[in-house]
């Protein structure tokens, strides 16, 4: 599959998919529980990706070596990374965990420098700095005090929560960078996503089958919840991850990670439309810095 879009726009499209998908995840994740929600959406995403890869004839582009590396990337990024992020949110709340997880863009740039020899200079460096700063400000100061989640007042497990959020960020960065050399071999992005998603689902299913209580559904899966999970899976895991892999074919891994990290900012106007309430001052400042940083990166 050859994309007609530059890699910068593919990364931003992925961020938009994740932002819109996150709006649909709250009710379903609360209803099912974080692990059950993740397991169901991985199953739906896996089935869709397998079907698309079969129609697209993408499986022929993969070798056993490709599959092994993709499975390892899925284990690190989807299984370990997502699980660590959910655990961090339980300890820190979504706001503080989100700020720490946003450092995955910085980790990606650093690892890309040492691992792939990628460097940022001039306007790209300035734009990247503004972008990361904007994302963190939007997350940290983007809500009014009355809108804070009840977990924000929870003080137990703070140190372990910080460690888990940073682990999730590092896993995200490592998993993305592992894929850069692989995507240069022109393997099909949809088939590659299918392998990564299958790995994550199998590992999550194993936790459920081993009888861990944390993996059980809080409440039964209803038709409404199913459709929320299905739409989230399609946007976040099918489209979003495929856009990222396609972007890695044509762009630097660090830059792709930077641009795809803007989803917390993109979700702000969506929340405004849904709840009819203007975001807090921090959201405006963060969004402005993010937009300026993104423009500098793209124009450069």
UniProtKB/TrEMBL annotation:
Belongs to the EamA transporter family. It is a multi-pass membrane protein. It comes from the Bacteria. The chain crosses the membrane at residues 6-26, 38-55, 67-87, 99-116, 122-141, 162-183, 189-213, 225-248, 254-274, 281-298. Residues 9-139, 160-298 form the EamA domain. It is found in: Membrane. Signal peptide: none annotated. This is Membrane protein. Its main location: membrane. The keyword Transmembrane applies. SUPFAM superfamilies: Multidrug resistance efflux transporter EmrE. Keywords: Membrane, Transmembrane, Transmembrane helix. PANTHER family: EAMA DOMAIN-CONTAINING PROTEIN, INNER MEMBRANE TRANSPORTER.
């Amino acid at each position: 599959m050859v994309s007609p879009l530059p890699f910068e726009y593919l990364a931003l499209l992925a961020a938009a998919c994740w932002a819109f998908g996150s709006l649909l995840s709250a009710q379903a994740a609360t209803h099912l529980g974080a692990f059950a929600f993740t397991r169901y959406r991985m199953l739906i995403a896996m089935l869709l990706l397998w079907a698309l890869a079969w129609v697209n004839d993408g499986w022929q582009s993969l070798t056993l070596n490709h599959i092994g590396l993709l499975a390892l990337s899925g284990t690190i990024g989807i299984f370990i990374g997502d699980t660590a992020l959910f655990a961090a949110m339980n300890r820190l709340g979504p706001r503080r965990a989100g700020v720490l997880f946003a450092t995955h863009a910085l980790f990606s740039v650093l690892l890309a420098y040492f691992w792939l020899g990628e460097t940022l200079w001039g306007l790209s460096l300035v734009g990247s700095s503004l972008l990361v700063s904007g994302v963190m400000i939007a997350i940290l100061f983007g809500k009014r005090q009355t809108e804070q989640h009840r977990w924000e007042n929870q003080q137990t497990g703070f140190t372990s929560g910080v460690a888990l959020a940073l682990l999730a960020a590092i896993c995200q960065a490592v998993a993305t960078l592992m894929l850069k050399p692989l995507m240069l071999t022109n393997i099909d992005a949809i088939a590659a996503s299918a392998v990564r998603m299958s790995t994550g689902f199998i590992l999550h299913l194993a936790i459920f089958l081993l009888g861990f209580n944390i993996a059980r559904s809080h409440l039964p899966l209803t038709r409404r919840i199913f459709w929320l999970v299905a739409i989230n899976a399609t946007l976040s895991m099918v489209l979003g991850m495929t856009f990222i892999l396609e972007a890695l074919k044509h762009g630097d891994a660090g830059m792709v990670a930077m641009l795809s990290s803007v989803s917390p900012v993109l979700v702000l106007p969506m929340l405004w439309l849904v709840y009819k309430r203007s975001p807090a001052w921090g959201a405006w400042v963060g969004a402005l810095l993010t937009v300026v940083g993104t423009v500098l990166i793209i124009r450069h």
